[in-house]
Amino acid sequence: MREQKDIKIRSNKGKVNKKTSSRPPRRFVRQSRTKLIIAFAFICLVIIGLIVRLIYINTTSGEKYRKQVLSQLSYDSRDIAYKRGDITDRNGIVLATNEKVYNLILDPYVILNSKVLKSGDCIEPTIEVLAEYFGIERSKAEELLVNHPDSRYVILKKELSYNEVKPFNELMDSNEEEDEKVSQYIKGIWLEEGYVRKYPYSTLASHLLGFTASGDVGTWGVEQQYNSILNGTQGREYGYLTGEANLERTTIPAVNGSSLALTIDLSIQKIVDETLSDFYNSVGGANVAAIVMNPNNGEILAMANYPSFDLNNPRDLSSVYSAEASASMTEDEQVEALNKLWTNYCITNIFEPGSTVKVMTLATAIEEAVVTLDEVFLCDGYEIFENGSTYDKVSCAHTAGHGQITLKEALEFSCNDALMQIAARLGKETFSKYQRTFGFGQLTGIDLPGEAAGLIKEPEDMTPIDLATNSFGQNSEVTMIQVISAFCSTINGGSYYKPHVVKEIITESGSTIETFDKELIKTTVSKETTEWLKAALLGTVEEGTADDAKITGYQIGGKTGTAEKYPRSVEKRLVSFVSCAPTESPEVVVYVIVDEPKVENQSDSSIATQINASIMKEILPYLQIFPDETVETEATSETPKE
């Protein structure tokens, strides 16, 4: 019995021991599982945090870090130049264009770090090519390599022409076997393409066109006014070497600028330029200027003033000053002289116009019915005006007086006395209103920079003497573009068109983006008034003060002007003449001014009249305005004047 019991006890112990060795305690299992979950969760949170941080950095500073990484790699990049748009005349003849040029660029870093298996470094062959093909002295090239070993961009020469770089390009593109190609020995020199502005006709229409400064910045004229349209957008080629030494490139192509077609006619512009140049060089004056305009739409067909300048070398003062005088100028004096030379007299300079504005005064009087068309005035040679306790005398140009003179004759013989009487009837309020109507004292809106508004007196500031003298073009200041625009409205039926010099904007592909047609701003006078004025203007040429404007076979209408300049005591004059043809239905208007002509009698308005006639005589046949046989017969039957 005792033996059996012992056996059972051992058997029980064996079971207990077996169970304990095959299963760990429950507490240990739970703790391990919890730790694993916590560790996994922590790792997940860290990963999520990193992802969030990376997204944040990429969003806020990605571009900055990208550039930092690229900056630490070997890379090269270059600008791709755009082509500035052309400027042409109305017939498509190029007046301004861009010619492709090349800058010779040296990359010392590449030269010093490039190797060729057979010959070693590339320094010697590259220096030899620079000397042979571009005239770069060996000492200069070696100095650059020593002083700028890490530089990637050194300009050796600027604005090389196609013919100057052609031999080098042929050398680099030679069709020899690859292992014998010369180009493998030449490293670190390349040609950067660019453009330079060129003006095929040099001084022609220089003040109207303007020019470009460094960086395609338009200066004066059309170049400045339409700078943003003429300019394109520069392209860029980005390149870098990856860690595997693969060259990656990204190219953003350049966008070329749009072109401009002007209202200017090259042939008419040449006639005007040559005529003014001949007078300026033979007779001379402070300024000689002319505008040719289509009275029926506001298009400027020609615009010029002298002295002129070379658009391809705009800082050359030799047309005005001697070499010695120019060299002796201070920097400020040179700047002042250049700005004066570049100024477009036709739109920027203001002056007292003289009797050309009598046309507008008479138009106002007729419109306001303060005169009758058959009225007669008495010109005794002057008018007297009370000036405080004294009296001032304002004389007629014909100091002896014209005697009895009709309204039409008052224009034909330029009678100041009659005009002063008419202005007194109008009164300063009405007179001032019409000055504004005709555009005096305000911008015309011509599409050129630098236009001046002029100076006219307001009614409250106008004395009786001011009113009287304003009626015949003294004591108020205007611009040429104002006078010709106003005059056009008095002979075209009363339509005041906005003057303009650009006709179309054209894309590089030849598509028209925008067209500038005639823009009617306002109506100044009635058609009945313009018909009377045209007859009076014709009479001024045929029978009055402007007989030098006659052209056989043509009906020319016009008005002379002579203005005394300030100070009156120096007796300097500005003479002018404005004309239209054919008078019955005008198709062209020419306005000429000579400021301080270098002649003994500066008051002689025939100086401007003769220049005007020379221009008109040549442009009329060109515009296919041919002589009227009836007019020609009548003209040849007249007795010549002595």
Keywords:
642 residues, alpha+beta, Penicillin-binding protein 2a (Domain 2), Beta-lactamase, 2 domains, seven-stranded mixed beta sheet, five-stranded antiparallel beta sheet, 25 strands, 22% strand, disordered N terminus, disordered C terminus
Largest sheet: 7 strands, mixed
Per CATH, the class of the largest domain reads: Alpha Beta
CATH architecture of the largest domain: 3-Layer(aba) Sandwich
Termini gap: 180 Å
What is the molecular shape?
elongated
Task: Give me the oligomer status.
Answer: single chain
Tally the helices: what do you get?
21
> What is the fourth-level CATH superfamily of the largest domain?
DD-peptidase/beta-lactamase superfamily
What's the pLDDT, averaged over the residues?
Answer: 88
Q: What level of helicity do the residues show?
A: 25-40%
Topology record:
Elements lengths: L1 H21 L3 H46 L3 E6 L6 E2 L5 E13 L1 H6 L1 E2 L3 E2 L1 H12 L3 H10 L6 E7 L1 H11 L16 E10 L7 H4 L1 E3 L3 E3 L1 H5 L1 H4 L4 E7 L5 E6 L6 E4 L3 H17 L4 E7 L6 E7 L16 H5 L3 H12 L2 H4 L9 H10 L8 E4 L2 E6 L2 E6 L7 E4 H6 L3 H22 L26 H7 L9 H12 L3 E3 L4 E5 L5 E4 L4 E4 L3 H16 L14 E8 L8 E9 L6 E8 L10 H17 L6 H9 L5
Parallel strand pairs: 2-12
Antiparallel strand pairs: 1-10, 2-3, 3-6, 3-7, 4-5, 8-9, 10-11, 12-20, 13-14, 13-25, 15-18, 16-17, 19-22, 20-21, 23-24, 24-25
Helix pairs in contact: 10-20, 14-16, 16-17
